[in-house]
Each structure stands twice: as C-alpha cells, then as structure tokens.
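User: Could you check the structure of this?
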Amino acid sequence: MNVAGDFYVVDQCCTACGVPTHHAPETFAFENDQPGASCYVQRQPTSPEEVDRALMVVRCQEFGCIRYRGTDPVILRRLTEADSGDQCDAPLPAGIRPVVRNHVSVEVQSRDARAWESDTVLERFRHWLTDRRHQTTSIIRSGSGASFSFAWTQEDFHHVMVSPIGDVPGRWLIQHAGNLAASETIDRWLMDAEELGTVRWYSQEEWTRGLLGQARPW
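Assistant: Sure, the predicted structure tokens are below.
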C-alpha cells in the first residue's frame, strides 16, 4: 500500500505503535481501524517541514519498520548523525558519526525581550513545559546564568542551563546534558516562542571550535 517514493513501511512489520501517524499524519495512515492493521505511506513528503516530520518518525519508531530508500546526501547525513543510519537502504556517507547537538544560541525578536535575564528565559520554557504536562524543578540563579531540570518521567530529568552571550543584551546560550530528544523538546519550544529567534544549534565540539552551527538540532 506504500506509494512510490523514498519513505516506506516494511511489509508485515507494523505493530500499530502510533508513532508515524502521531508525528507525520500527512505522510502515514492506517489501512483500517481493525486490530492488527498496518500503517503505510499514503503520500510522500512534499515540503521541508514534512520531510522533517517523516525523519522524526524514522528516528523515533520502535521496531525499524519505516525506512528511507532515497539517496539525498543531506538526509543520509542527518539520519547517520541521529544514529539512525541503519534505517537507510543507500550507502551512508563516509566519515559521518552520531552527534548530539545540545548547545543552542538564541536572540530576541521583540524589544521587550531584550531586557530579559537568564531566569526569565527559563521561566518561559518552564511554563511551556508544564502546559504539556512535563515535570520541572525550580529555577536556580547563579551569577548571570540560571538552570533547572525537566523530565517526561520521574526518573529521567534533563538539566538545562542558560547564560548570556557576550555583552549584547538579548543573546543567550542554552545547553543541556541530555540526549537528542531533549534537544528536540527545546527546539519545539523555540519554534513556538515568538519573542526568540535566530536559532543556531551546536554540539559541544562545534560550539568550542566556534563553528557555524545549524538551524535544527539534527
């Protein structure tokens, strides 16, 4: 039932986990609403945003049922860096290894936000998280920086730190000690935060070396 194209669902592999239709409902669908029904690719992605969502399905799925058979070097690199290269049919690019981008620089988009302190930035993130039923700790200030932790479950908290960048008001570095899923959570908040913009993501090495970074964490 898969339409022709780069993304496909392996026949008789689907366990109805719900990940594909949750993250990319425009691309994936279920054949019917009966127990044991399989998902399939109903339409290939047609925009960069739809490609992003389809790639998130490839990365977040439980049993490797969704695969990428294309040869786009950018997509192959992204999946390799996200430690999902085994879901690609084409040969992977040489010299690329898994990487976690857990540093992100942001700048204000509004005049009012230029006067924020680091704890104000975190408070906005904390409010966004609690609206989505995440658990959070209290925000702790330390000099010009601030930090707190958030979790999906009681046992798996991710520590987040914010500090100003340089002497220009309204520029911050946000970093965390978690995994790629934590970066994606922060990224979704930044996409919703109208006051913040000019987002660049870095690994620890990329930030230390002063490299350009990229617009998304993977």
